[in-house]
Amino acid sequence: MGSFAHIVEDCVGVLQVLSDGTIFRSENIQFNLPVIDEKSVHFKDVTFDKNHNLQLRLYKPTSASFPGNNYKLPIIIFIHGGGFCLGSRMWPTCHNACLRLASRLNALVVAPDYRLAPEHRLPAAMDDAASAMKWLQGQALTENSSDAWLNSESEVDFEQVFVLGDSSGGNIAHHLAVRFGAGSTELAPVRVRAYVLLAPFFGGVTRTKSEEGPSEALLNLEILDRFWRLSIPNGETRDHPLANPFGPLSPSLEAVILDPILVIVGGSELLKDRADDYARKLKDMGKKIEYVEFEGKEHGYFNYDPYSEAANQTLQVIKRFMSDNSS
What we know:
The chain is α/β, with parallel strands linked by helices. The protein is 27% helix and 22% strand. The protein contains seven helices and eleven strands. It has an eight-stranded mixed β-sheet with strand order 4-5-7-6-8-9-10-11, sandwiched between helices. Strands 1-2-3 form a three-stranded antiparallel β-sheet, covered by helices on one side. α5 links the parallel β10 and β11. The relative contact order is 0.13.
């Protein structure tokens, strides 16, 4: 008789991979995080990819939040994190952050789901995020959009789109920036103005100093490595171009014209050095990039408490960045 299947990969009990290839995902996740009741924002779910049964969540401030009668809402595409293996638009960490972004920045927030690894290894997540952008383009091109919140005659401005990615979502945002290039002409009449990478999840075979440093409350090097093992194409390393933008096999970004990018990271994050290196290398190439570090903050500081003082300061940075790049 063969031996019983046993766990070979365990992501905090939420995702487990067994030795026989079976993948178990828990349907009863206990979040020690309340769902915020933000009365100034409405939200609803919409299917954007029927082939893969993918949905997104729309967040819209109430009319009372508008600064004036002629104001049109900018659009923020929020791509959640989770190491490419976990997460959903419905998780409190994503939902609360989107509520806060919509209310504080007076924006329509679009939060798409994407297929997760290891069932769907990279580049599935990047492809799904691109599909969400194409869905938005479809809404803009339709004279009477299938969704009233996105009707071109309503309060949204398809020429003021900003992509914000958190953690693995920040990695995805980078690849969208490269894919669509400056001006995002492929998405016309949608115009992406800039990208915000919040603690982007990049990797590499060679360890950085911050990766070798002390573990965080919610993150350690073992977890990061596990996410990479489960998400990158089979047989590849952390230097794969989808993990490491500046790896030995990664295409050069020298000739790629990019829209402005803002990188935000906590000063005590394991991912800090990779985010810093990413920003420095793009700046050396002449790209328009900003890097902001919040001293002492760990991974997820914004999502886990979007009403904290650090989160408020983060929103101020994002608001200023959006204003600076709105034309």
